[in-house]
Write a structure and sequence with these properties.
alpha/beta, two-stranded antiparallel ribbon, 23 helices, 66% helix
Length: 548
Amino acid sequence: MTEQTARGGNADILTQFTPKLVSALHEGYGFDRLKADALAGLTVAIVALPLSMAIAIASGATPAAGLFTAIVGGFFVSALGGSRYQIGGPAGAFIVLIAATIDQHGFDGLLLATLIAGALLIAIGLLRLGTYIRYIPHPVLVGFTTGIAIIIFASQIRDLLGLTLPGKEPAALLPKLEALIGALGTLNPAALALSLLTIGIILGLKRIRPRWPGLLIAVAATAALVFLLKLSVETIGTRFGGIPSALPAPHWPGFTRDKLIAILPAALSIAALGGIESLLSAVVADGMTGRRHRSNMELVAQGVANMASSLFGGICVTGTIARTATNVRAGGVTPVAGMLHALFILLFMLIAAPLATYIPLAALAGVLAVVSWNMAEKAAFAAILKHSRADAVVLLATFLLVMFEDLMVGIGVGVVLGSLIFMHRMAQVVTVEAGMEAASEEDEADTGVAGQHNGDVFHYKISGPLFFGASTQVITVLDRIGSYPERIVLDLSGVPFADSSAAVALKAVIDKAKHHGAIVEISGATLAVRRVLLHEGIREPLVAFRNA
């Protein structure tokens, strides 16, 4: 490696781990950019404010925990992130995972799991593994998001209808639905009316005034009705006692060795889901703006944000697609917009915390009902079922496992099934063309072998990726030689890459040909393919290599 190459590699690494905020400020930051970022940050804060509280409540945490997450986690996601437009905060995709973690390990267990997940995300980013997290098949993503959307909606039925359950609401979907059906007799008409009013305001404003903050208007209007009409419904005040008017002091979650081991699976799930969600959100922002994010720096930022969020009593934080898209549409141009969004939410806590006491939980449930409807990829789900049987299997497996088993199990099984289908499809792409021709004097001179047997040359042209999934198909064709000719030419000019499994299988064929006295020549192999073949023992004098 030359000194220049080394410098280039170091510069590339330095670029990968430079926050986009630094790049944006280096370009120059004036009043016009600050004005655009401030307006975008305020717009996103208005959207994030009710969502953060609603997601936290649905997750089994307090509304304050959702606000702490949006403030602390959201600030670090933007300040250190690898995307100019990413907005961080609590996400609907985490609701099931957070609720299960709190149910099993308590809120302190969730804080510890989030802290460890943050450290894992930092390690993944520093190891530059961010690219691999994005290799998730589309049917898996559709099945996952649709399954999560249904679970989120089911988790809101209680507050949508104002039901009173005799005990704790079950976490699993089917027992939850059974308990809710059994409690229908306790339906609160006022809560139902507020839920429907919230949904109506959000959908109505989206149609007639799409630029207005429908979520905040709906929540504020229903809170005003609760205050003025003294409605007998559950509110943030009656269930949680309100929200604090300042951030708490940071504190380290207590843990023991046994507790650390117990919450490790949850931490791994949080890290995996957080990495996937944040990079997907960054990709969406790239598509809307034409920019490119730095995936590894983004993961490092997500890790720092999760650790900081847990220290301040917040829940899991990740990049959120809806809020990031809102930031782009609102005209945000640098990460300062995301940092200001966090500060605006903090300002709300400092000034208007007492007003949150009157926010009805039915209204926040209505907000999440709309979110779950928008989250479900209905058109993509139907299209996959209609057009591809193999992809439909992956989709349904992911969808059903997410709903009835576990979201990380659903993703894992979906990725494995998708990978197997992909390998099968790639194996079908590989072709082998065979033909016999008489050896010329020039060919005999090239190899230094005088005519033996019948002097014929058997040509094989292999096209496509030569990997373990295709090796059986290729070797079967090569093994069909009846009587061996003088020479066998394997043309690998159409092979973009080869793996060790295919090379081992190919060596077995070459050994067999040598045993029958044939000379094997490999032509057209790229340098990368030749390295794999040589590593597995396919070398001279066993084989004569020739350039294409």
